[in-house]
Amino acid sequence: MHILYTGMRFGFFSVEGLQSGHLITVFVSVLLSTLMLPLLRTVGLGAFSMASESYSSGTHSAAFVTCPNEQVAKDLARGMVEKKLAACVNIIPKITSIYQWQGKIEEDNEVLLMIKTRSSKVSALAEYVRSNHPYEVAEVISLPIDQGNPPYLKWLGEGVPE
User: Fold this and answer.
1) Strands (E), 8-147
2) What count of Cα atoms within 13 Å lies in the side-chain half-sphere of residue 104?
3) Which is the most buried residue in 43, 92, 126, 156, by most CB within 10 A?
4) Sheet of 141-144: strands edge to edge?
5) How do strand 141-144 and strand 88-101 relate by DSSP bridges?
6) Of residues 47 and 75, which shows the higher confidence score?
């Protein structure tokens, strides 16, 4: 049995002559399209991003080193960049470190280096710091970079070749 709708209008859309099955099909199609749009947009943007600027999570790292003063920090930072162990080193002055050393709680004013490098260079960077740092046990820690500005990450990779 087919029911025929005549004379009904929805906005600009006329359903004159549409059978009930067709009307339901149109309604379901519009509903699904509306619900799927955010998902399709996300997938499409992701595909475009992968095609234009790809980045493999963890390719680069941010490393941190504390220094006793600004001159040591500048010397280490300059050496890292010159030796292409780092693309960029930020020197963050006037931090206070509280730590345990040889059984005592210590408090010192220090300078922090925030180093951007390739993850594959962290071992060489740590060796450079151990060889050039005045501390008996120098801090060198790193965290992988999961995401970032693609042009910046590309620049970082160019500044620290494999």
Assistant:
1) 9-10, 13-14, 60-67, 88-101, 104-118, 141-144
2) 4
3) 156
4) 88-101, 104-118, 60-67, 141-144
5) unpaired
6) 75
